[in-house]
Amino acid sequence: MTDRKPSPERVYETPPTDRPISEAEAARTAGLAHNEHIKIASGYLRGTLADGLLKHATGAISEDDGQLVKFHGMYLQDDRDLRPERSKKKLDKAYSFMIRLRIAGGVVTPKQWLILDNIATTYANGTLRATTRQTFQYHGVIKSNLKRAMAGIDAALLDTIAACGDVNRNVMAATNPAQTGAHRAAYDLAKTISDSLLPKTSAWREIWLDGERVVGGEEAAEVEPIYGKTYLPRKFKTVIAVPPSNEVDIFAHDLGFIAILDKKGKVTGWNVTVGGGMGMTHGETDTFPRTADVMLFCEPADALKVAEAVMTVQRDWGNRKSRKNARLKYTIERYGLAAFRAEVEKRVGKKLADPKPFKFDGNGDRYGWVEGEDGRHHLTLYVPSGRVKDIDGGARFLSGLRRIAEVHEGDFRLTGNQNVIIANVPAAKRPEIDALVDEYGLTKGASALRRNSMACVALPTCGLALAESERYLPDLLTELEESLASHGLAEDEITIRMTGCPNGCARPFIAEIGLVGRGPERYHLYLGAAFDGSRLGKLYAEDVTAAELRTVLDPLFAAYAKGRKAGERFGDYLIRAGYVAQTINGPDFHERTGSLKSAA
């Protein structure tokens, strides 16, 4: 683990003592960010969404409602591939919505799977997209179909509220099927935190399901007892990990709980991590990714209190004037971990213990069949970039998983690496599941590099994308697999992740090879992160074209093959051999960048 203790000479700011401003005039006087004014005026996330849905002249909604609808689990997007042609014809953009579900721990029943599949083929673009946050999202839902899609989601006893927006978002949990008891504890904690920190406004049901409005609802102070009118300064992400697997990338998130196990594998308590986050802005060095600090240890009975305390301190201390510096990672950089911990303990009502020892060995998934401690069987399938669809001439994921859901007696689990687990299969059912997997060409694994790869959606739907990601990564992996094989590294596990922009949705900054879009077919290349996700990479080469990526990486693969020590990971080797500087944590992410020596 990297030492993240602050240097003794560091001087921190004095934390605020007041609750966030929630009155419009005071917010204007204080110069708060525009989104704060939107939230204050929204009537607890209602805005003019209900009226905007009735305006059929455009497939879009107002700009302010475009911010509010995120709290309801949606983003307004358009098909950027169609922009030039539509512009030429003087047509409006091809607007549609991305809908993201809230599925704590990523667990759904076969019945829910079939309903979600039907929504995908009826109202979306015919695919389910497993995200890097252990949930599903739909793409291509037009405005006139939004309420129908939401009704279908509600019929599956699921929802989308708080899947996006300035709230505690979908809570991720470890999925390791072999650790049955620990997984159950992780899932239960994820579900409890998700339910407890859910916004209490009835706006979601009123707008999307034509629910009755609570009399005086938006004016009642008790509508949001935890969040208040202004919710959080920015997004807030919570994850639960069970060592030795760091599959949820605990160091990349605002709040994390690491299970501390006894010799029998039972959870005795949780190490609590705070202050991780991936997003940054190109060219702005006051923005940076950051790995979380391991702050303290808590007993199981205190975990929910700690989660609420961490979130409410961020609610009160977070930067509401500058959204680019509003995440918890910047709050801790501003006020210091010691002050933050003291305030958390004050709100919990007691002193908490220091962290306990733990060890992670990687952040990937375990593919193929695994038997749990309870005798149930679990099959992890490799799903490229999480896109559940039928591939021409290849795996038919959508059809195959639909057929499996029709006969499956257990449940499905999504992983933080965008894969799908057919979970809790009785031993007698394994042959039937295997036969369906083979019939539809589903993949129980892939090459070592693909097994450890991730990509965000990027083009054509994401409005923030600067470059391709999901559509391009498979071709790049083929090139790099050839390069690795030529150096005898075909079976070596190396993490590689790609995003179309620096928001970091696929967590590229903690991948041993991180590729972040800068423009059409241009990427910043980051190297030197830790295989277990505990250390950030460093910018190695700027604006590398897609055609140059193999050429840049090939000599590094050659050097690694010749010079590595037994068991040494690619990222660790690059630092030890002096090719790239080590990143200690967020603030020095932008220091000593570039190649330190030639790899040719």
TrEMBL record:
Its cofactor is [4Fe-4S] cluster; siroheme. It holds the Pfam family NIR_SIR_ferr. SUPFAM superfamilies: Nitrite and sulphite reductase 4Fe-4S domain-like, Nitrite/Sulfite reductase N-terminal domain-like. It comes from the Bacteria. Binds 1 [4Fe-4S] cluster per subunit. GO terms for biological process: cysteine biosynthetic process; hydrogen sulfide biosynthetic process; sulfate assimilation. Siroheme binds at C505. This is Sulfite reductase [NADPH] hemoprotein beta-component. It comes from Methylobacterium durans. The lineage of its organism: Bacteria, Pseudomonadati, Pseudomonadota, Alphaproteobacteria, Hyphomicrobiales. The gene is cysI.
